[in-house]
Amino acid sequence: MMRAPWFWFREAGLLSMLLMPATLLWRLGGAIRSARMTPKKVPVPVICIGNLTAGGAGKTPMVAAWSLRLASQGRTVAVVSRGYGGRLMGPHKVDPAKDRAEDVGDEPLMLAQMATVWVARDRAAGAEAAARDGAEIVLLDDGFQNPGIAKDLSVLVVDAEQGFGNRRIIPAGPLREPVVVGFSRADRVVLIGLLEERRRAADRWPELEGALPACLVSVETGIDLSGQPVVAFAGIGRPEKFFGLLRSLGARLAAAHPFPDHHVYDERVIVRMLREAAEKGAMLITTEKDAIKLPERYRCEVLALPVRLELEDWTELDRLVDTLAPRH
Question: Which residues are CB-neighbours of 144 under 8 A, at least 6 positions away?
Fold first, then answer.
């Protein structure tokens, strides 16, 4: 995976303009793909959590939070993921005790520690397998732009800091499709960020008015990071978000190493960062998603900071789900 180009999140300039012909080809390819496919309806409600931009916007944390909430309501829920970065085509039910990130992908393996997860390149086949396995509701982790499966409810997540970038379509910008087109198919939008970030986002992108507010918070680990020197690394959509969270917890960043999303870590890189942390009297720290890909012998030497999404008010989403699958 490559990092998102810097110009995606600046005002549209010359570089973005030069890529506009490639954007037309991207949109044409998407239109042809959609025209050739008929969305397949599966026997249980399908709820899609997607986004409009390439890269991380908070889909997986939203899936994790929603799956836990549905389970707490007594519902049998399964998550279906494409399994990016894994070798298995699926449908395959993830076993966190046996599967590895290279088999099923890092995000499905992480989610499988809190929910039933299926990986399938064919998402409709994955949802059908989940239904046969007893799932009453299927959560799609991504797939908003996938025309092969019918969705009963679609929720878009938007990162308050990156928003829609320069509003242009890949590769001229970060968008997978125009904002107005995506919003026309979405039932609700969740805006993820701190209060001030959400206010700035709503000022810059008026379409976000009325979005459901949410934020990412760290889970209590029993370790006080206040004043603690750390060497941090992250291979997620926006590593800077993780580094900012550490600073907000009072950690002192002796070094911060960003990697591309879904990065696979070479053992030599881990050894080098462990040595750097030791030399600086710091703790080596990363995300849960990154920790799950580390060689097992190094996992006890790296602190994985768990993060969860908190939605300010679930009432609206609860009501929408109840219309699809009334509680018994």
Answer: 48, 49, 50, 51, 52, 151, 154, 156, 182, 185, 186
